[in-house]
Amino acid sequence: MKTKVLLFLLTTSIVVSSCNSSQKNYEAKYVFLFIGDGMGIQQVNTAQLFSDSVLNDSVGIAFTKFPISSMSTTFAATRYITCSAAAGTALSTGTKTSIGTIGLNATHTDTLYSIATDFKKAGKKVAILTSVSIDHATPAAFYAHKGSRSSYYEIAKDLVVSNYDFFASGGFVEPNGSKNDSAAISIFQLGAARGIPFTSSLTGVDSLMKLGVNSIVFSAHNPGEGSSLQYDIDQSDSDISLRDITRKAIEVVDNPNGFFIMVEGGKIDWSCHDNDAATTIREVISFSKAIEEAIAFYKKHPNETLIIVTADHETGGMSLGNTKNGYKNHLKILAKQNVSQEKLHSAIEKFKIVTPNANFKDVLKLIEEHTGLSTDGDHALTAEELADLNVAYQIYFRNKKPKTDKNTYSKTDLLAKTAISILNTKAGIGWTSSTHTGSPVPVFAIGEGQELFSKFQDNVDIPKNILKASGINR
Ligand SMILES: [Zn+2]
Predict the structure, then answer these.
(1) Is the pTM of this model over 0.90?
(2) What Cα–Cα distance (Å) separates residue 30 from each residue in 63, 198, 448, 470?
(3) Which of 77, 110, 227, 248 has the fewest CB within 10 Å, making it most exposed?
(4) Is there a domain that residue 272 lies in?
(5) 377: in domain
(6) 88 alpha carbon to ligand 1 midpoint, in Å?
(7) How far is the centre of ligand 1, averaged over its atoms, from the C-alpha of 37 (Å)?
(8) Separation of alpha carbons 118 and 205, rounded Å
(9) Is 330 helix (H, G, I), strand (E, B) or coil?
(10) Nearest 5°: CA angle at 280, between 269 and 41?
(11) What is the Cα–Cα distance from 147 to 31, expressed in whole angstroms?
């Protein structure tokens, strides 16, 4: 009899406790959503290995140590392989949409609202940050509603009326309107009319905070291509990093009611479109350093903070391993690359202007300076690789107007492209695409409500569970 009672009590307590966990009211007051654009598990894994074995960094990719690591699908409403606009909208609103669409449903007949608006309604502060331009697809999905992600000026106009508290990025793509619209009023004027200040210095942000200004828009003073922050691999000490703006955002929006901060590592995608592994690894590490700021905040408020790290899709079909190298990897040779492919192209372009009659040997020296590729040493260029570089040299230096290739987000030339491709192959990195892939992406979580992200999920579940973890009903 006693046993029966004990069994009954045990069963009851199990039922009660499982009810409690499914109905638990979560109260994450401080929420961080980090989106690594194009950051598949391969990008994270390669950056982790590089950080461990080449940089000997004891911290490494900090978010891989979060207690929850799972996966998410990425497909759009109309295509297996998504784009940043459709994926950004799925992650921001909880509804899938069509390719190129920002904050509208697939047929553009309905407006979709991002969870950032729910946080605002709940009296919390909102910050939207990115390493690309603030009118780019991922950040735009958190405040704009436009049928085309390329309507940069129109997207920026939605930013001005969003009432969010802080924006930080490399700037705007079309602050003065599209090329065809000379009558457009600049975003800066439109913002000023609503009392929104724009600044390009972090100390400027401090001064504006002291004045009690509601919305602040920060743009880097030295933007890279497409009004982005400079690639981490190309940064000088005076350049603004994603970590700098994340730290500043926490200062700006920290308040007793709580906040929602979205941080996009936007250039992971760009360097993956270029199939440039060294630049990608540095971008993932830089993204991870920004996340360390959130982790430091979490340590001060462990019961009230939630950090989610995920991606909108994978870019490049990156792999650790390729057919040519078989089972061998030499990640350490990527450490010799000291500029992005985009900057290598600029260096080659400048070299041609200064030395138009440069011979192949001179050009090889320039390539060696920036990539470590050399005719001698452990990983010396093979005859086949030298022949490929020579063909590219002939095309670029012997043609008066050599073709400049336009990658998705950067200009390049065959010589820069060939050199980076050879380096990647020698390192044992593979790429199957210059666009996105349909792979699921990783999801990492720590903090209040972390268990809501523990299963294989659809990308639209992520924002819904973020609201749940925050105790906010739509
Ligand atoms: Zn993307």
Answers:
(1) yes
(2) 17, 25, 9, 8
(3) 110
(4) yes
(5) yes
(6) 7
(7) 4
(8) 25
(9) coil
(10) 75
(11) 28
Within this chain, do residues 254 and 351 fall inside the same structural domain, yes or no? no
Together in a domain, 338 and 372: yes
Residue that the structure tokens 């199939």 belong to: 275
Structure tokens at 163: 């009432």
117: number of CA atoms within 13 Å, CB side? 19
Query: From the CA of 279, how far away is ligand 1's center (Å)?
Result: 17
In a domain? residue 7:
no
Per residue of the chain (474 residues), give pLDDT as tens: 444 444 444 444 444 444 444 568 999 999 999 999 999 999 999 999 999 999 999 999 999 999 999 999 999 999 999 999 999 999 999 999 999 999 999 999 999 999 999 999 999 999 999 999 999 999 999 999 999 999 999 999 999 999 999 999 999 999 999 877 888 999 999 999 999 999 999 999 999 999 999 899 999 999 999 999 999 999 999 999 999 999 999 999 999 999 999 999 999 999 999 999 999 999 999 999 999 999 999 999 999 999 999 999 999 999 999 999 999 999 999 999 999 999 999 999 999 999 999 999 999 999 999 999 999 999 999 999 999 999 999 999 988 676 666 667 777 889 999 999 999 999 999 999 999 999 999 999 999 999 999 999 999 999 999 999 999 998
List, in sequence order, every residue forming a beta bridge with 125; answer none if it has no partner.
259
Range of the domain at 359: 320-430
Q: Does residue 97 contact residue 76 with C-beta atoms inside 8 Å?
A: yes
Distance from residue 95's CA to the centre of ligand 1 (Å): 16
Pairing relation of β-strands 68-72 and 429-430? unpaired
SS3 content of the chain, % helix, strand, coil (to 5): 45, 15, 40
- Crossing angle of helices 461-470 and 84-93, in 10° steps, is 30
Dist. CA 221–CA 230, nearest whole Å:
11
How far apart are the CA of 314 and the centre of ligand 1, in A? 8
- 364 alpha carbon – ligand 1 mean position (Å): 34
